[in-house]
Amino acid sequence: MLIKILGTGCAKCNRLEQLTREAVAELGIEASFEHVRDMDQIMAYPIMTTPALVVDEAVKVSGRMPSKDELIAWLKG
User: Fold this and answer.
1) Which of 47, 54, 69, 75 could connect to 62 by a Cys-Cys bridge, CB 3.0–4.6 Å?
2) What's the whole-model pTM score?
3) Residues 52, 69: Cα–Cα separation, whole Å
4) How far, in Å, CA of 73 to CA of 54, rounded?
5) Of the candidates 12, 7, 17, which has an alpha carbon nearest to the alpha carbon of residue 45?
6) Is 8 within 8 Å of 54 (Cβ atoms)?
7) Are 74 and 52 in contact (CB under 8 A)?
């Protein structure tokens, strides 16, 4: 599983990465993380605001902080 955090490195982007890593650890699944900070790469995705979470190239959320329960549901899916 490839998980991408889209954002320039703001506090919310970093928090999203931290929460997602916690959810992955709780589920005991294998995942690699990539924090995409380059605006050209971020704009390649259909999002208007950051932070955004992309799981296996599917945008799961953008512009808000999901709950850990939401993250776990997406990662199980």
Assistant:
1) 47
2) 0.95
3) 16
4) 14
5) 7
6) no
7) no
Q: Distance (Å, rounded) from C-alpha 22 to C-alpha 20?
A: 5
Catalytically active residues are 10, 13
Which residue, chain included where needed, has tokens 């932070």? 51
The span from the CA of 73 to the CA of 77, in Å, is 6
In one letter, which amino acid is 18? Answer: Q
Q: In what order do the strands lie in the sheet with 58-62?
A: 32-36, 2-6, 52-55, 58-62
Tens of pLDDT, residues 14-37: 999 999 999 999 999 999 999 999
Q: Which two tokens stand for residue 16?
A: 């999203």
